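Bug #77: duplicate submission created two jobs. Keeping one. Sequence:
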Amino acid sequence: MITSHPTRARTDDHPVAVAAGPEPSGAPAPRRGLTLAQLRARFTPYGFLTPTGVLLIVLMVTPIVMVVQYSLMDRVITNKNPAFVGFQNYLEVLTDPVFTVAVRNTLVFTVGSVVAHFVIGLAFALLLNTPLLSHRVKAFFRVLYVLPWLFTVAIIAVLWRLLLNPNGVVNYLLGTFGLTDGQTQWLSDPSTALGAVTFINIWSGYPFFMISLLAGLQGIPRDLYEAARVDGAGWWGQFRNVTLPQLRPIIVSMALLDFIWTTQQFALIWMTTGGGPITSTEMLSTFTYKLAFTQYDFSVASAAAVVVLLLSMVLAFFYVRHQKARD
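Kept job's structure:
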C-alpha cells in the first residue's frame, strides 16, 4: 500500500515542503463593509422614488385611512364626540333601497357604455385602417371622430343639455322625420333619462377605444392576412381568425380600464341630471355625494365610499392580473 503525506513530498531523496491547499469551499468568506460608492449606488433609486412615495402617502393613503376610520364612527365631523359603531354604517348603506337602485343604474350605465364603446370604436378603427380610402380622407375622419374626446365634461354636459332640450335640435329633427312628437323630455323623463345619459357617455368615450384599436390594427403583420387569403379565408374569416385574436389583449385591457372609469363617472351625471329625475339616473358616485353634501351624513357616505373602493379594487385586481399574464 502506498500512502502520501498531505504536506510533504520527496524528490531526489530530499524532502520538499508542499503548500497547503485552499480552504474548503464551505468555509465563510470574510465579510467586507460596503464602501460609500456602493451605498450611494444602492440607495440612489430609493432617493428618486421618495418624493413620489411621500405624495402617495399624503394624497392617497392618508385620505383612504381617514375615510375607513370615518366609516366606523357615528356622525363624524358634525358630532364633536363621535362614537365607534363598527359596521353599522355599512349595514345602513347596503340595506338602503336607493343604494340598490344606484347599483342597478351603475351596472346598466357601465355595461351599455363599455359594449357600445367597443363596437363603435372597433368599427371606426377598421374604417380608418382600410386601404380603400385615401390618406387625406382618413386624416379628415380621424380628426372628426376624435373630436368628442377633446371636449371637457362640462362642455359635453352643457352641449347635450341644449341638444336634448324639448325645443332643441334633436327633438326638431326627430319631429321633422315623424319619429317622435318633437316634445320628448329626454333628461327629465324617468323612462328616458338613463338611456340619454348613457348615450352621452357613449358619444364622449368611444374615441378612447377607437385610437387604441387603430394602433393595434396597424401593428398586425400583413403576412398573417396574406396567409389567411392563401388558405381561402374571406373578409369574415380574416377578421375572426386574424384580427380579433391579435387585438384580444388590447380589447381586454381597454374594457377593464373603461369599466373602472365608467363606474366612477360623476361629473357627467351630476351636470346633466343630478341623479334624477327621482332616482332614475342615481349612480354610486352621486349616491355617495348626496349622502355627504346633501344629508351631511359623512359616516354613512364614508361607508358607501369604502364599498365603491372595494368594488374598484376587485376590478383593478383583474386588470393587473391580465397585464401580468400578457407580459
